Amino acid sequence: MKAVTWQGTRKVSVEDVPDPGIQQPTDAVIEVTSTAICGSDLHLYEVLGPFMTAGDVIGHEPMGIVVETGSQVTHVQVGDRVVVPFNISCGHCAMCTAGLQSQCETTQVTEYGSGAALLGYSKLYGQVPGGQAQFLRVPHADYGLVKVGTELPDDRYLFLSDILPTAWQGVKYADVPAGGTLAVLGLGPVGQFCARIGLHLGARVVAIDPVAERRAMASRHGVEVFDMGEDSVEAIREATSGRGPDAVVDAVGMEAHGSPVAGLAHRAASLLPDVVAKPMMQHAGVDRLQALHTAIELVRRGGTVSLSGVYGGAASPMPLLTMFDKQLQLRMGQCNVRAWTDQLMDLVEDPADPLGTADLVTHRLPLSQAPEAYEMFQKKQDGCIKVVLDPKAS
To answer: Member of which family (predicted)?
Structure first.
């Protein structure tokens, strides 16, 4: 089959790889009909190379049709249309039953002290072949696969794999009071959904992003948008009686610009030999923290900062004095996808499409054009906000 493979820093290629098959009785194999490029994939593309192996199949936002099941899989059958959550969870351990599927004790990657294994996401998370491919093996399929209907297009369901529940969790963690104000930093795909979810749940939503096309997309959904800069922070504070918003979702993470030192650390970690770079990534502060520091500065006293953006440095400095003085709550974590998919299903199937799932994808390309798509997405060219790859297109 054809699959997108990691080949080095800023280098992916589409290669012929062996077709996946059933390895455990709890597995299923799907034929992938749509698979998206996530902002988190850019971390593999740019930063997490020390934990990758040339030839790794990447991607963790797929959906498709079940073509084979293991002997213990009863929830789905051949022919079912399904979405595949990016975290691999068993559904029966203590963490899963507590709604913390991203910490699944059955699939935890104990070698690296990581939580649940993830599809297509480096040695840190199990090195499981990913979903930017024609076919995909799904472990723990009886719990993990989410059956969907047959009438609506893929785009209405595809984002249940990651970014929609990630955004929902981020807003829920923000705990915006009734009638309160939510600020969203970063209007990439997760930030777009965070803003729309905030509005859907009754909050006033303001958002900051440096890219005009992203601001325009959010604006047409009713979000008050601002360019990046201190003037925007002050304008938002003034618009909230001088206090700042009740909660801030940081949907940027370690891709934030503005720190030349951390930018150098990113590049150094990606270029050093693995034996040197791995300890640097695991024990050093390598993040660009501008977005997080902005969130802490912007949120009102006694407010909440919710992190949906991914950070990778184990020793990144934090302004603890300010956080303590402002009496902030800080919530974060890998999304527990299966904790949210059931309640999100009604929203994605609603004919009114209240979260605007039909208004997110800016580029649809054949799987064969994945290298060009990655470069375009990373460089934010051609108004690129969300890319979906089609494994069947030529």
So the answer is: Belongs to the zinc-containing alcohol dehydrogenase family.
Burial status of residue 317 (CB atoms within 10 A of its CB: 0-12, 13-18, 19 or more): exposed
Q: Render pLDDT for 39-60 as a digit per residue (tens, 0 to 9).
A: 999 988 887 788 899 999 999 9
Tell me which CATH code domain 164-332 carries: 3.40.50.720
Query: What is the CATH architecture of 2-162+336-390?
Result: Alpha-Beta Complex (3.90)
Domain borders along the chain are 2-162+336-390, 164-332
pLDDT tens-digit series, residues 113-151: 999 999 999 899 999 999 999 999 999 999 999 999 999
What mean pLDDT comes out for the span 325-352? 96
Q: For residue 11, count CB atoms less than 10 angstroms from its CB and return exposed for 0-12, middle for 13-18, buried for 19 or more.
A: middle
Counting Cα atoms < 13 Å in the Cβ hemisphere of 328 gives 28
Q: How far apart, in Å, are the Cα atoms of 21 and each of 25, 27, 34?
A: 11, 9, 20
Selection from 16, 61, 80 nearest residue 368 by Cα:
16
Looking at residue 5, its pLDDT comes to 98
